[in-house]
């Protein structure tokens, strides 16, 4: 991982309006973002969305939003995870619309381990809807889900980014999973 102090300085400069600083942050953290994207898309053979395309699309979302400000490394990665989620959901919507009119079906499970990668289908769309509802109830839980499920980070990595204990992240992940499963079954 890149030096946190350097990243924080670059993020401060980016917050002041220095677009070059944001570009340097992204180039410094590109490999980490690419690793996140690769984990997220594992097992998606034959798809037009690959890890590089996902990082580039997320980058466009990051730089395209003028109001996007990153206080620190954790905030940057939370925003990057949200941008990746948006790209994946948009991609799944587009695929479904082309495939069969975008019909959704019910999701009945949410895996504890996302090592196998996300499925780019109606399950992702159902999860996105449920996650949006969760964010309205408890934004902290929704952030943990985004970092874990959409960015592919481990509980230990999330704990380090959010400066919380791994145990509290594990509890948040379990609470969020229960909420999401209940929400998905009611859909």
Strand content: under 5%
Helix content: over 70%
**Unreliable residue stretches:** 101-107
In N-to-C order, the SSE pattern is: HHHHHHHH
Write down the overall geometry.
globular
Look at the structure and give the mean pLDDT.
Answer: 78
Number of domains: 1
User: How far apart are the termini?
Assistant: 40 Å
What can be said about the biggest beta sheet? none
**Extended strand count:** 0
How many alpha or pi helices?
8
Compute the gyration radius: what is it?
16 Å
- Secondary structure category: mainly alpha
Protein name: Sigma-70 family RNA polymerase sigma factor
Keywords: Sigma factor, Transcription, Transcription regulation
Domain RNA polymerase sigma-70 ECF-like HTH: 5-184
InterPro entries: HTH_Sigma70_ECF-like (IPR053812), RNA_pol_sigma-70-like (IPR039425), RNA_pol_sigma-70_dom (IPR014284), RNA_pol_sigma70_ECF-like (IPR011517), RNA_pol_sigma_r2 (IPR013325), RNA_pol_sigma_r3/r4-like (IPR013324), WH-like_DNA-bd_sf (IPR036388)
Task: Describe the overall structure.
- With 187 residues, the protein is mainly alpha-helical.
- It has one domain.
- It contains 8 helices and no strands.
- The longest helix is centred in the middle third of the chain and has 28 residues, at 73-100.
- The protein is globular.
- The N and C termini lie far apart (40 Å).
- 35% of the residues are buried.
- The model is unreliable at 101-107 (pLDDT under 50).
